[in-house]
Amino acid sequence: MSEAIYRRILLKLSGEALMGEGSFGIDPDVIARVAGDIKELVASGIQIGLVIGGGNIFRGEGLAKAGIDRVSGDHMGMLATVMNALAMQDALVKIGVPARTMSAIPMEQVCDTYVRRQAVEHLDRGEVVLFAAGTGNPFFTTDSAASLRAIEINADLMIKATKVDGVYSADPVKEPSAVFYPRISYDRALADGLKVMDATAIVLCRDNEMPLRIMNINTPGALMRLVKGEAIGSLVESGK
Ligand SMILES: Nc1ncnc2c1ncn2[C@@H]1O[C@H](COP(=O)(O)OP(=O)(O)OP(=O)(O)O)[C@@H](O)[C@H]1O
Ligand SMILES: O=c1ccn([C@@H]2O[C@H](COP(=O)(O)O)[C@@H](O)[C@H]2O)c(=O)[nH]1
Questions:
Q1: Of 6, 53, 139, 216, which residue is the least packed, with the fewest Cβ within 10 Å?
Q2: Angle at CA of residue 140, ends 179 and 46, nearest 5°
């Protein structure tokens, strides 16, 4: 069996993907399956930082449309990401993977507070570190939090694992004729306004030369093949 080619990755999981076939919350089978995939990566010696979105529970933007103050809605969204992180932490620990949630918003009875130096120490010890509560600030997303943490921990690669196979010319869920891009530059993704990831997150990756892969979390074995160097999903990088 070939070896993983990365030492440390930042994996961003879509919150919505955790719903499975449901329309809200967490499907325990999905979270157990993804935890199993992460266990395989850890066993291959890769250090893993994890960011999980909150779209399966709350998004500030949606709550604002329903009449809730935007900043309060964003706080609710960030708390949703803590719930997802705790659920994943539990699933990992149950299968013997050391895991630790670090929140950007202190809540000491619930989990650790994010401190970069400590996070890196935990990663070096082989613990999966779950970065929760996004950036800790409203008006951001967990994509931006994932880019930020990837850069802070000096990850070799950021992976956005979501419900589609990668980057397309348009949202493939809404436009089935959209063209798949196996590779695209940060600048082209920004210029074309592709909505697979928010612009702040892409700019952070671009300006800090953080390579990014976008892939489907529901493709069996894909994560492992990706970290062994297979061209899974779409690569977003510098260039034209
Ligand atoms: N050009 C595009 N290429 C690929 N996907 C796109 C594109 N434009 C929009 N999308 C949509 O973006 C989604 C990816 O975002 P994702 O569901 O991971 O949301 P998120 O807001 O990052 O996460 P969460 O579910 O945690 O809120 C895909 O499911 C896809 O439908
Ligand atoms: O830094 C952040 C990260 C997230 N939020 C809020 O949480 C929700 C859920 O995150 P998703 O990235 O959409 O999954 C997001 O919609 C924001 O409301 C935040 O305020 N700051």
A1: 139
A2: 70
